[in-house]
Amino acid sequence: MHLSDLKTKIPEPFYIVLEKTKLDELRPAQEKAINQGLLQRKSLLVCTPTGSGKTLVAELAIVSSIINRVGKGIYIAPLKSLATEKYKQFKQRYGHLFSITLSIGDMDDPEPYLAEKDLIITTSEKLDSLIRHGAPWLKDVAVVVVDEIHLLNDHSRGPTLEIMITLIRQLLKNIQIIGLSATIGNPQELADWLDAELVMDTWRPVELKKGILLQGKVEFY
Question: I need a surface site. Which of 24, 35, 82, 158 has the fewest CB within 10 A?
Fold first, then answer.
């Protein structure tokens, strides 16, 4: 699938931005996500290798929803450092199209200014706090992206992430959830729990080789 195939499927300002990135051909995971209902607001669990293009899948869901005025977007990163990195990336590429903010601060601060923002990049712990503070703007959220969703299995972050996703699905019946991960042991089971389509692919930009290093020599197998 080529970028030109999306020209009539995504908002024009969004298409212009992607065109400037010199993106020509979509990667397999991106094409599969589109074919499985990404642009029709279906929830997806994307389980593909690092570098396979999962971030653009998230962008297609978030940016389309915001520009088409379907609703706000939330991007959940597992760490503050990763949330900050994503904020910089989104701000640089889409800051001229809609308002973007980073919310990773005081857990007891309800941050009412978030009501005026289109895209909120945060951590699961912070979003859990905002939900518990009864943030009124939550009803305006249309899409939630959960990066590194396999951390549901993490003994420290997993419970908070699971409760937060459960609360979101209860509060927002028409929410689109996009889960992203390179490593999930039980992808179909997790997709069923999310009521999401499963997108799997093994393509990666650089071939992965396995080998053994012994006395300065590597033997691949």
Answer: 24
